[in-house]
Structure formats: structure tokens, C-alpha cells
Amino acid sequence: MRGWRLKCTQCGAEWILNVSFRLNEMGKIYHYCPKCRENSFHEVVDKV
Ligand SMILES: [Zn+2]
Hints:
The chain is globular. The protein contains no helices and 4 strands. By secondary structure, the protein is mostly beta strands. The site of zinc ion has 8 residues, from loops.
């Protein structure tokens, strides 16, 4: 396992966040989106 696939709820971009803790238990994640270039809410798509 490398991390989690996150989907930005603002622009729809999917990207990989390389952390090992259980993000899926947190619900929506407020994180920097590389495409929006600002912080936005993300959904956890799946484990990668
Ligand atoms: Zn975005």
C-alpha cells in the first residue's frame, strides 16, 4: 500500500496522497489540491 487516492470536490481531480494512516475513517479531508492550488475538501476514493 502506497497511500490513498483522493478526489477534489472542487475541481474533480484525482491524485495520490502518500500516507499510511486510515484516512477513510476521517470522511472528507481538507487538503491542498495541486490543481486548484489551494486547500479544498477531498473525498477518499480508494486505497492504492
Ligand atoms: Zn482541486
